[in-house]
Amino acid sequence: MATADNQQDGVHGGLYVDKHVAYIKSLDKRHDEMEYWMTEHLRISGIYWGLVALHVLGRPSALDRDEVIGYVKRCQNADGGFGGHEGHDSHLLYTMSAVQILAMCDALDQVDAARVVSFVCGLQDEKGEVSGDVWGEKDTRFAFISVAVLSFFGATARMSVAGVVAYVCRSMNYDGAFGSQPGGESHSAQVYTCLAALAIAGRLDAVDRDRLSSWLAERQVRSGGLNGRPQKLEDVCYSWWVLSSLQILQRTHWVDRRRLCEFILSAQDADAGGIADRPGDVADVYHTCFGLCGLSLAGFDEYPLGAVDPVYCMPVDVVERAGLRSWMDKIPESWLAQ
Question: Apex CA 63: angle with CA 239 and CA 52, to 5°?
Answer without folding.
Answer: 20
